[in-house]
Amino acid sequence: MFSRLREDLECILQRDPAARSRWEVLTCYPGLHALWMHRIAHALWQRGFRWLGRFISNVSRFLTGIEIHPGATIGRRVFIDHGMGVVIGETAEIGDDCTLYQGVTLGGTSLARGAKRHPTLGRGVIVSAGAKVLGGFTVGDGARVGSNAVVLKEVPAGATAVGIPARILQRGADAQREAAANRMGFSAYGLSSNGDDPLIKALHGLIDHAAAQQRMIDKLVAALQRQGIAVDDVKADAPAVDPHQLDKLVDE
Q1: What separation, in Å, do the N-terminal and C-terminal C-alpha atoms of the chain show?
Q2: Are 145 and 139 a contacting pair, CB within 8 Å?
Q3: Is the pTM of this model over 0.85?
Q4: Which of 61, 115, 135, 139 is the most buried (most CB within 10 A)?
Q5: Using an 8 Å Cβ cutoff, are 40 and 29 in contact?
Q6: What is the pLDDT of residues 78-95, one digit of tens each?
Q7: Which uninterrupted H or E stretch holds 73?
Q8: Measured between alpha carbons, how far is 156 from 135 in angstroms, rounded to an integer?
Q9: What residues have CB less than 8 Å from 197, skipping those under 6 apart?
């Protein structure tokens, strides 16, 4: 038991630069307190003391702001940072060395009793602030879930899920595409500062770029016409871009 407690303290000291001492972590980290109380509630739940397990879980929720169902399975060296508003459902499974931030929900989408309704997180998964992982699927080892993402399907190991609903970004071509989107103002780990959906923000950037190109084409055509070069067939084949209309379509 004491080795597990030492593990919990050390993993927080390693992952949180704001943690200055073991005493501070021991006394001031609600995520740590919630996990310790969950171990008691989970042990009671497994031994058939269901009401008592739920009662301890509810007391933990009141004290820490973190709701963990006593039926959930949580591995070693799990770190719940800040933790306020975290909800972990009954059939959720969290692997070793995972990190959850505030506002994370590991929820279910099925009403079937006894079914696997909540997600399974592999080893070393990071779920960023405000993310919702909903359903009985698996998030693979080392995967990352971006801030405010809503994940509704399986995430492969090592991949990143971002957006609403979440899109899966793999290494390689998708990573290069993500970098290009970042240069256009796309927030890789959730919603942008003005609240736009990341994909919508990237689309707006593409629309603005297309509109700027259309303006340049119009100027070139006008310059050619002034020089006596006929370009009527070009104008007929190239319909003008209306950025305002495109923006409305994207927003809808």
Answers
A1: 54
A2: yes
A3: no
A4: 139
A5: no
A6: 999 988 999 999 999 999
A7: strand 73-74
A8: 15
A9: 163, 164, 191
